[in-house]
Amino acid sequence: MNSYLPAACIGVLIVDDLRIAREGLAVLLQRHNHIHVVGAVGTGTEAIDAALRLEPTVVIMDLVVRELGGIDAMERILQRLPQTRVVILSAVHTAEHVFRALRAGASAYVSKEAATEELVRAVNAVVLGDRYLSSHATALVIDGLLNNGMPRSSGERLSARSLARVTLDSIGDAVVSTDVAGEITFLNAIAENLTGWTREEAIGHPLGDVFRFLDADTRAAVHNPMALTILQNKAVARTANCVLIRSDGVEVPIENSAAPILDRRGTVTGAVMEFRDVSVARTMARNMPYLAQHDSLTNLPNRLLLNDRLGEAITLSDRYQRKLAVLLVDLDRFRQVNDSLGYAVGDGLLQSVTRRLFTCVRSSDTVGRHGGDEFLVLLWELRRPEDAAVTAAKILEALRKPHQINERELRITGSIGIVIYPDDGTDADTLMRKADLAMYHAKETGGDNFQFFNFEMKARAIERQSLQDGLHRAIEAHELELHYQPKLDLATREIVGAEALVRWRHPKRGLIPPVQFISIAEDCGLIVPIGRWVLREACRQMHAWQLAGLTPRCIAINVSAVELRAPGFVSGVRAILAETGLEPRFLELELPETTLIEDTRVIKDARSVGDVLRELKEIGALLALDDFGTGYSGVSHLKGLPIDTLKIDQSFVRDLTRNKDGIGIVIGLIGMGNCLNMRVVAEGVETREQLEILTAHGCPEGQGYYFSRPLPAEEFGRLLKRDAAGMHLPDQIAFETLLPRPEANQRVM
Ligand code: C2E
Ligand code: CA
Ligand code: CA
After folding, report:
1. CA dihedral in degrees (611, 555, 656, 694; nearest 10)?
2. Which of 432, 546, 718, 720 lies at a C-alpha separation of 20 to 30 Å from 360?
3. What's the pLDDT tens digit per position in 362-384?
4. Do 294-453 and 466-724 have matching folds?
5. Which residue puts its alpha carbon closest to atom 37 of ligand 1?
């Protein structure tokens, strides 16, 4: 008993009147790795031409096609190419249609309503020399055999009966039928084999005498699908995970489907069930998961495994509140390569594409073969949907480079559809459907591009790209500038320090705040030169203020995780301090808390960040933990690190007056700082009320709009002068109103 495991690659020609139908079908079939759709045509004449030219192994044919009609076209194809197998895919079902098709040489008859899986099973079956009938068609044939409603003349009827018998016996699946009372009316040869009953013995017996069904896992009795189909008068799709218990007690894992048998007036006269022994397939899935779940050509996870992975990714994304991107990558005009250069070259190209894909993703991401020339890429732990665009662009570029296959240089491009979980859908099916649509959109726009299902995301991705392009020249074009925000001693209101915050004065867009370009700079590596510029400029400015007799305790700059981990960061700091003449003790580096956290958990060389911090301490610089409280680092973790200052994140300060827990949390954070012997600075102080609560609970320092917005250097210098003269913030309310509001034009974009 075969279980229809696909052997080599099967070339398939599709014939259908409707363009949409044949193209849709081509896409669905291409997903099956062993099927290559060699052509898709619309008329009978085209079908004959295409068949002779392409010599497909299987022709999938609609019965109703223009010029000739399906049956005639099939007969002519089979005359010239007797090896070819024809699968009829039809929307019309009468016994006559089925018999005519079979008599004319069709090997399979599948209803158009059937799932693609059934069509694929039919293709696999006919390639192995079996017949295949979808359960509807089987019901019609059985009806013919039992002579309830067959052709007019008695001669025809006779030949129909023998044809029916031969057909049913040459089906690779077991077929059994019953009357409405559930008594067996027919078994085919395979069913005899499987059940251990001969046709003659079985006929007239209740089905339950011959075999019973159980659920393979729960061992509970499963509804007899034939009774169900009679009751509901409609086909019953596959009962999964079913075991058939033969009368002798032997268990056979099966897959089945059932359909009602109707007479000419449409009355139910019985039911037919098709079933197949899936022990081989199930054992294989259990014992050889690798083979069953991987594509043999590329070694990538196949569709089956991809489905699993996608489900898994969704669960994990939920758990960790992360986004997930699904990229459906389809090669443009791959079929032409296959058709003109042969499958061997096509296969080589697919392998080359596979290698390229791996160069574009992180090792934690998933790359799989979705079928034919479609690949699926799952990007886990996405920070922003736009990040998927970066990967997509990388993939397109990688594909575009010439591929060397058998001394031949091939060029190919791809079309990519992108969907984001959970934005675009919350289940795998929806995501895949939308990825498909997005991919089609990419094809429509000429291929060699990517499209988000959500077009707003596309817009954001383009925006990001344009900023990235501009950022490349920003440093040389002197478009970056630093603004300074004071840090105050909350008790005395004296300015004790300044934080340098970078801005980008874009020639067209005006002043761009760092949130809009720092992450871009991090992604494309520009953060390193930008960070150096910031450091140099801040040190130079601080030194200049000192020379002018103004002495805030220190100048703070922000350092992102990428910079900190970049090689040569420490020596860069040392060099710039020497170059600008600023003493290291006047420099403070603010590191986001999340940098440290992620490092100890995710990255293996967690020690290295600690080492970098210690080296910075050795130079003599101060270290602050920025956005403290957002990264959940515990006291024990912080204890080991040479940190001088904790900056309580703005969100906690904001919550002080918003909810009850707010105060408790801030008290806790202040307490942690005290207990660790670190200075504590509250960020984002905006109101008098917040200030009062902070002071009441012993928070020593603060920073925020309540005192001053970040100011250009010159204005900050004036602020320092007033501060030195004893005019502290924000008591000189008049002072703020005198100032132009430098930040006011920030939201230009
Ligand atoms: P941050 O380090 O947490 O900086 C504080 C941010 O809060 C600044 O935004 C500041 O303008 C803003 N802010 C200050 N007081 C208040 C307040 O009372 N209320 C509110 N709502 N906001 C206040 P900015 O300048 O837009 O900077 C945003 C972030 O960009 C910074 O967050 C920092 O992470 C990053 N950044 C800024 N400059 C640099 C830089 O030179 N290098 C790196 N790597 N990152 C930088
Ligand atoms: Ca900061
Ligand atoms: Ca902060």
Report:
1. 110
2. 432
3. 877 889 999 889 999 999 878 88
4. no
5. 501
Is 743's C-beta closer than 6 angstroms to any atom of ligand 1? Answer: no
User: What's residue 638's pLDDT?
Assistant: 80
To which residue do tokens 């081989």 refer?
280
Would you state the structure tokens that stand for residue 121, as one six-digit string? 């099973």
- Ligand 1 centre to CA of 674 (Å) is 24
Residue from 526, 541, 558, 591 whose mutation best tests the ligand 1 pocket (most atoms within 8 A of CB): 558
538 vs 266, which has greater pLDDT? 538
Q: Is residue 271 helix, strand or coil?
A: strand
| Closest residue by Cα to residue 565 from 604, 537, 533, 534 | 604
Ligand 1, atom nearest to 746 Cα: 26
First to last CA, the chain: 68
- Using the atom order of ligand 1, give the atom closest to the CA of residue 527: 44
Is the pLDDT assigned to residue 625 strictly greater than 70? Answer: yes
Tokens describing residue 153: 């003349």
Whose atoms come closest to the Cα of 515: which ligand?
A: 1
Residue of 475, 482, 483, 501 with the most ligand 1 atoms within 8 Å of its CB, for mutation: 501
The answer to whether residues 209 and 259 touch, using CB atoms and an 8 Å cutoff, is no
For 173-293, CATH number? Answer: 3.30.450.20
Q: Is the pLDDT of residue 283 over 80?
A: no
Helix (H) or strand (E) holding 260: strand 251-262
**DSSP states of 374-404 as a string?**
EEEEEEEEES-HHHHHHHHHHHHHHHHS-EE
Question: Domain 294-453 belongs to what topology?
Answer: Alpha-Beta Plaits (3.30.70)
- Ligand 1 neighbourhood includes 560 CB (under 6 angstroms): yes
Determine if ligand 1 sits within 6 Å of the CB of residue 686.
Answer: yes
Distance, CA 317 to ligand 1 centroid (Å)? 29
Tens-place pLDDT, residues 489-535: 999 999 999 999 999 999 999 999 999 899 889 878 899 999 999 99
Closest-CA residue, ligand 1 atom 15, reads: 704
Average pLDDT of the residues in 685-705: 95
Closest ligand, as measured to the CA of 707: 1
CATH number of 1-171: 3.40.50.2300
Alpha-carbon gap, residue 681 to 489, rounded angstroms: 9
Atom of ligand 1 nearest to the CA of 706: 18
**Residue 670 CA, ligand 3 centroid: distance in Å:** 16
Task: Specify whether the CB–CB gap between 518 and 560 falls below 8 A.
Answer: yes
pTM, two decimal places? 0.52
Can you tell me the distance from the alpha carbon of 236 to that of 134, in angstroms, rounded to the nearest whole number?
12
Confidence of residue 749 (pLDDT cuts 50, 70, 90): very low
Which residue is closest in CA terms to ligand 1's atom 13?
A: 684
Q: Could you say which architecture CATH assigns to the domain 466-724?
A: Alpha-Beta Barrel (3.20)
pLDDT digits (tens, 9 = 90+) for 41-59: 989 999 999 999 888 999 9
Task: Please report which residue ranges of 196-300 form alpha helices under DSSP H.
Answer: 199-202, 207-210, 225-232, 279-287, 289-293
**Domain boundaries along the sequence of the chain:** 1-171, 173-293, 294-453, 466-724
Q: How many CA atoms lie within 13 A of 246 on its CB side?
A: 15
pLDDT digits (tens, 9 = 90+) for 316-357: 788 778 899 999 999 998 888 887 888 888 999 999 999 999
pLDDT: which is higher, 585 or 284: 585
Whether ligand 1 lies within 6 angstroms of the CB of 514 is answered as: yes
Residue (of 544, 576, 579) closest to 557 by Cα position: 576
Nearest atom of ligand 1 to the alpha carbon of 686: 18
- Give the Å distance between the CA of 631 and the centre of ligand 3: 12
| Helical H segments across 548-658, by residue range | 561-565, 569-580, 593-601, 606-619, 635-639, 650-655
